[in-house]
Amino acid sequence: MTVSSVREANLHRITVTDNGKGFDPEKTMDGTHIGLRNVKERVEQMCGGKLILQSEIGKGTCITLLIPEGRKEQKP
């Protein structure tokens, strides 16, 4: 597994990659990968960020979080 972080123009890019068994990204919203769905929703709601998911069965997974710089958390 590799974790990297870089500051770009107006955001922070955090990337986590592995060479594991991978999975079908279409199943992330059907309850199979509820943890990923929860992180995606929280990043979007709390800071206007974005989660990008790429995975291929037999090759591994790459998850990228894009976190805007300077936006404060919004309380419900």
Describe the structure concisely:
This protein is an alpha+beta fold. It contains one helix and four strands; from the N terminus they run ββαββ. The protein has one helix spanning 34-47, and strands spanning 2-7, 11-18, 50-56, 60-68.
What does this molecule look like?
The protein has 76 residues and is an alpha+beta fold. The protein has one domain (2-68): Histidine kinase-like ATPase, C-terminal domain (Heat Shock Protein 90, 2-Layer Sandwich), CATH 3.30.565. The protein contains one helix and four strands, in the order E-E-H-E-E. The chain has one helix at residues 34-47, and strands at 2-7, 11-18, 50-56, 60-68. Strand 1 (2-7) and strand 2 form a beta hairpin.
- CATH class value: Alpha Beta
CATH architecture: 2-Layer Sandwich
Number of DSSP helical runs: 1
Structural class: alpha+beta
Mean pLDDT: 88
SSE run: EEHEE
Radius of gyration using CA atoms only: 13 Å
CATH topology category name: Heat Shock Protein 90
Proportion of residues in β-strands: 35-45%
Strand order across the biggest sheet? 1-2-4-3
- Total strands: 4
Low confidence ranges: none
State the end-to-end distance: 35 Å
Largest sheet: 4 strands, antiparallel
Key phrases:
Heat Shock Protein 90, four-stranded antiparallel β-sheet, 76 residues, alpha+beta, 1 helix, single chain
